[in-house]
């Protein structure tokens, strides 16, 4: 599906009298370096994409990747174009889950084609932000690539911040005195973090290349912007790593808490048992059939025995408390 | 065993009037660069292979490797030929097991010899796919190497996807409320993953070299294809790593579940014990032999005692439930 | 907020008759290389900073970072200035907690702007130390950067030393015979160490670059000073790593202690139980209703039975002690 | 002790009329490049070795190493000779243990001195294999170095294969339903693997250098042979790593099995206890002394009570089985 | 404190008629390259060191380090001198503890100043060994640096060997059938090993530089000696790493042993309990008050009951033993 297609000339969007899929008309509007066509697609069919590929001369292997989706983030350099694959991430509050989409960018001298798979408004917001900064747009199609990367990577930071909150909750839960079942929660968070890492880590090398001047298609004045994106990426990565380490520590602490609790329970149980079995022994003693047991003849023998049982139980209780057993 | 042998000229298979093992006749049909003979062997005897080695001038160390099998994946450059060792992987559904075979490829200027050990249809499917793409075949024998690598690495991705399903099952089992014995399953999956890694990791360096232009025998226009294979290899590797991390986390969670369950069991047992020992104490009390125990003379003393026992047990039960012990 | 602003000429502070925010007047006082203006800001508003940026020609991306704070430590080179981000750390005794602030340094040919976020007296002490060493001040604005880095990194070493004490305490607690709940303490210390690492590690690369001559703005005679800072940074990092390893080992030892203690408790409980159930059995025996039980008729039967119970219990106790069970 | 000493000329052993220690006579027989003397020593005394050192001009530091043994595998280049230290490994079936020896090789232009410490027939078998391949021997003394390395590294692979069998046994034992004490076995195997790694890993760099052409003493045509050795070394290393990972997983599974078993035991114990304490409660009830207890007067009261006990116990048993408790 | 100061000319110590602190007189005795003054200090005061610094032109930052001690091992190159920091280690038998000192070496063209902090006779033994090898001394002051490094690193190997013995003891203790409390011991050993690593690891880079020819002050003929030191350092490091891995494995095995022992204890306890509660049930049965219980009237009823109890207990015991429960 074609979401939007437009010609940008001298930093501003030009209204052309043509349908979105009349790529040749759009491209014919390019007049000087820096002018370019931006075509935005959403889950294009193979057919749609092959038309686009023909119009803009995209490389077949890259087109195949863009149809299939489920690629690793990567930057491929073909003879006269770049192909960038980005994972998009967003946090779904209701499930505490991280979901992923994919954006592919084909970048030529005078065009940029963005292909989105999965949810997300990254492309729309990138487009509207860019259109508000004409001076950036004059950098040519590379500015689109920068704007999209910036929006996507800011999304990573948002997701990572949500996960930070989740980790804080888990931490509180682990060290709360209640019996909590945190291991499933910790496991799920580790899975989410692995998802984030799969999006973040392979993107570092492409961003490094874009910001270092190894890719000639990126003009020198645009490099600090990619360096900024790389910086945010590194930050997302570092926070992710640190959350993972915290989760591992929290899990270990959880294990320790379980053991401590089991020990506490065992002590409670044993104390409780003592409070019953010792009186039972007393009852057993007064249930013996000896002929000569003076207490048995006492008028107050029975209440005395009950009292004895109570006193012994109470004494034990005090003893357990005082000795630190309970 | 010679499975197939053919001459490819100008991108198409040429029917020659000769037996499969008349290598000289086949080779004589090579007319211009890009023409080549493709000889496919399955578990050749030492004798068969030495004949082939003589006909095509293969290096003795490589031939030795191809007979023995059980080599690590590697790419060796000899004076005028390349030797590539690949591990093949497939998933056997009935055992949930990963099995391995081996493919060796000898690549010369005008010939390619493929040797297969172990099950697998990779070579046949690679041959038929290639024969359907004459334009690829015109790249010469390197196209065969690419096609085989592509098929084999796609096989890795298939295996990894099956293992992903297995890991999901284990995960579900670990967090199910039932008492499961997941540690053996997790162990086996880790073994399978190690098997995969042994095939995947050492192949990365050869693929990198083939895709980077370090190996002159690979024409420049074929490099993006090897880059594509390398990309899939990296993906298989990353998914494998991530599955391993998940399995480790799942195992730890399993350990935690065992501990939690033991604690739960201990609480159930102690509660059950309380329901028995407290009435036993009551019975013990009324079994005492004091002369003056008014209850003993009551007409309804006995039912009263039974009721007391029941009431105490019931009360304890409610207490355990309310206090969160059970 | 402008904390201080001054002109340094020939290594000494010059008293100029102008308000702190009259940057142009200050800068006009620069006469020869090595003279420079040092402007110190604390949590500047966006407006304040944009005025400063205009006056000194700071790069907009750097200014944005300085307003937001919460950046990673980094060194950015712009056309004619450097931008350095440092994390400051200090140890809060009352909570045993490590807290963090941030210092940003803009360095030009004839000016240095330092921006502080969060608590800390690093800038003031750096300024007063520098003013006491005129020969250092003649190195130009780079000497300010060195002095700030030195003070900040010395702060890291202080924090690390405090954490070393905390780790020693945890260690003592883990191996004390008492039942301690060290896992929460260990977890918190690991968090603090992660905080330290987040400040220390990303700073190493900038310091390496400043000390190695890759940054032309640092004069050759100043490099040994940055090498000194890098050395302290490496030391802080190594001690931090080693504390983390110790904490992990201490945690494992804590787990082992819990298990050992549980075992000890179980043995105590079982011994205690034996001391009750065996006499109960004896009482049960003498509670049997056989017609011919000689002991029942003995005058001293009852005391004998009680003695028997006591003797058996005492014997068991001795047995448990001797056999090493308790 | 001089084990063997001989002159090799043109690829074949030359019988000279001289005693083994008449090194000068032997060396005088060298006529053209490729001819060389091979002197084999076993645990030479310091005196013996110093004679050899003088005769062949060996470097004192290398000689010191060869006397002491207990060196790390390494390759040292001196002005006109090479010094290689190899660890030899063999598997002692009766103890399931890996033992180590050491071989030192001094390599000059026209001589090779091999020094063996510890058990092993590597040198003898290397010599006899070489003597059977005159074309290899014509490569000069480097062929001896290759042959020794090849034999030693093949020995590593043998050891690693034996350890693979041991690991398989441990694995079977861990997952067997019996109570096994595998932790000592696993620990020992880890020690053996560490032993192997200490021999294998430091040797990789020397082999890489020998196979890459960095060492001029190795003729170009011999490099593929060292590459082959390096390949086997890498294989030994990879299998070793993978065994270690398996052992760690097996150990973790063992821990899980212990926990599961403890839980199973606890359930069995509690069930067994229930089968006793519930009948005890019944006996207690009928041991109460109420005047009005109709059952006591029944003729069949006693058998009824016994039956009741049996029935309750049986019922509990069925309940435990059905509910999955046992 | 000045421990010793002397002039070495042409490889031998020259007796000069001057006090130890008359540095200028000493230095005036230097006649040709290779002659040098060796000044040995022990815990010099700031004042003493500043005098030395002035006399020999030492760099102030290095002097500061030498006063403070507690530096990381490092090699600093100043304009015309080298500054090397070494940690010394020794093993204190009575506490099984590793202690550390520090040696600083200032190396100029014609002098070497060695500063020792902490216990240790490394410098004295290095000096006497060197004075016995005049040919080494002719290499100039670099020979002193080599001799000190050699002695210090040999000390590392000694310490590591002592720790190897300790680890063997721990190992034996872990797998002994007794209940041992090894976790504290293992923890302490890990701390000692961390101490060793802190001395060894940062020294590797300086030694590599000294042995590789990157430091012009080291003459070519001295490099093999530093290579030898580096080799010993690597060995100390490898053994240290391997001990640490062993300790971790031993700790895990210790945890497993605790669990196994707890399980064994639980089984013993349950068996012991069974031996008491089953007879108690029998006693309870014969304590029931049924009118018609034939056994009660038997003359030998009582002994029969006791026998029954004994027989049942004995039977249970045999059952437990046979079934492998105990």
From TrEMBL, chains A, B, C, D, E:
Keyword hit for Chaperone: no
TM annotation in the entry: 269-288, 300-320
Source taxon at top rank: Bacteria
Places the protein is found: Cell membrane; Membrane
Recorded coiled-coil stretches: none
Keywords, in A-Z order: Cell membrane, Ion transport, Magnesium, Membrane, Transmembrane, Transmembrane helix, Transport
CC annotations in GO: plasma membrane
Keyword match Membrane: yes
Main location: membrane
InterPro entries tied to this protein: CorA_cytoplasmic_dom, CorA_TM1_TM2, Mg/Co-transport_prot_CorA, MgTranspt_CorA/ZnTranspt_ZntB
Record-linked Pfam families: CorA
Record's bilayer topology term: Multi-pass membrane protein
Substrates-to-products reaction catalysed: Mg(2+)(in) = Mg(2+)(out)
Gene Ontology molecular functions: cobalt ion binding; cobalt ion transmembrane transporter activity; magnesium ion binding; magnesium ion transmembrane transporter activity
Primary role: Mediates influx of magnesium ions. Alternates between open and closed states. Activated by low cytoplasmic Mg(2+) levels. Inactive when cytoplasmic Mg(2+) levels are high.
Family: Belongs to the CorA metal ion transporter (MIT) (TC 1.A.35) family.
Name this polypeptide is given: Magnesium transport protein CorA
Protein species of origin: Nocardioides lianchengensis
Underlying gene: corA
């Amino acid at each position: 599906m074609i979401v939007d297609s437009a010609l940008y000339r001298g930093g501003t969007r030009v209204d052309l009298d043509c349908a979105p899929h009349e790529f040749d008309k759009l491209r014919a509007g390019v007049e000087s370096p820096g002018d370019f066509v931006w075509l935005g697609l959403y889950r294009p069919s193979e057919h749609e994409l092959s038309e686009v590929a023909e119009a803009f001369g995209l490389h077949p292997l890259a087109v195949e990747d863009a149809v299939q989706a489920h690629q690793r983030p990567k930057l491929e350099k073909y003879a006269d174009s770049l192909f960038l694959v980005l994972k998009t991430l967003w946090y779904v509050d209701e499930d505490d889950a991280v979901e992923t989409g994919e954006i592919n960018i084909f970048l030529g001298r005078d065009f940029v084609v963005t292909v989105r798979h999965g949810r997300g408004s990254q492309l729309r917001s990138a487009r509207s932000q860019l259109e508000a900064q004409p001076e950036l747009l004059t950098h040519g199609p590379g500015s689109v690539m920068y704007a999209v990367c910036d929006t996507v990577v800011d999304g990573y930071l948002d997701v990572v911040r949500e996960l930070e909150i989740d980790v804080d909750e888990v931490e509180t839960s682990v060290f709360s005195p209640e019996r909590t079942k945190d291991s499933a929660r910790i496991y799920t968070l580790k899975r989410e973090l692995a998802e984030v890492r799969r999006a973040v880590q392979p993107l570092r090398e492409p961003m490094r290349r874009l910001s270092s001047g190894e890719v000639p298609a990126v003009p020198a004045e645009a490099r600090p912007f990619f360096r900024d994106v790389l910086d945010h990426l590194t930050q997302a990565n570092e926070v992710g790593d640190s959350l993972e380490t915290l989760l591992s520590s929290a899990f270990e602490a959880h294990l320790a808490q379980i053991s401590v609790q089991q020990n506490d329970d065992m002590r409670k149980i044993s104390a409780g048992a003592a409070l019953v079995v010792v009186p039972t022994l007393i009852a057993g003693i007064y249930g013996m059939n000896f002929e000569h047991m003076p207490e048995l003849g006492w008028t107050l023998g029975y209440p005395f025995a009950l009292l004895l049982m109570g006193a012994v139980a109470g004494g034990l209780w005090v003893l357990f408390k005082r000795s630190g057993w309970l």
